[in-house]
Design brief:
By secondary structure, the protein is an all-alpha fold. It has 2 helices and no strands. The longest helix has 111 residues.
Length: 169
């Protein structure tokens, strides 16, 4: 009965450990939501138009400003894509680490269960050996008692024979 109780306790502990691990795993997944940044609105400031007589670098400056404005949205999209890819990689790595931890915990629990089963088997074998030794001791004691009874009976018969022999003389 004690072996069954130990197995039931081990099984219950295993279920509780799996439930706790699953709870932590799901909590981490729920908390690891993707980070979303609010879109940025760039406001363009209008500069007063320069007259053609403003200087010889005005056309060049305007051209550089136009190129810079055209490149800015493209760089923002690239940064956002990189950020999203990094976040995805981090989430995948975290999920893999959690899965690895769960697998290690499961392996430890299986090993513990096997060790407990082995201990129960050894205990059962020891109990069977003890029972056999007790049975052997009881059989030896019974044989000794029977031998003693036979010797006493034989002694009584010899005494009776001697008494009968004395009465017949």
């Amino acid at each position: 009965m004690a072996g069954i109780d130990k197995a039931a306790v081990a099984f219950t502990l295993a279920i509780v450990a799996i439930g706790v691990g699953f709870t932590f795993y799901m909590s981490e997944i729920q908390d690891a939501s993707p980070v979303v940044r609010a879109p940025t609105v760039s406001t363009e400031t209008s500069e007063p138009e320069a007259s053609s007589s403003a200087g010889f670098g005005a056309d060049l400056a305007e051209k550089i400003k136009a190129e810079a404005a055209a490149k800015e949205p493209q760089e923002t999209v690239e940064v956002k894509e990189e950020t999203m890819m990094e976040e995805k990689a981090m989430m995948e790595e975290k999920a893999m680490m959690e899965e690895k931890a769960m697998m290690e915990e499961k392996a430890m629990m299986e090993e513990k269960a096997m060790m407990e089963e082995k201990a129960m088997m050894e205990e059962k074998a020891m109990m069977e050996e003890k029972a056999m030794m007790e049975e052997k001791a009881m059989m030896e004691e019974k044989a000794m008692m029977e031998e003693k009874a036979m010797m006493e009976e034989k002694a009584m018969m010899e005494e009776k024979a001697m008494m009968d022999h004395k009465h017949t003389q």
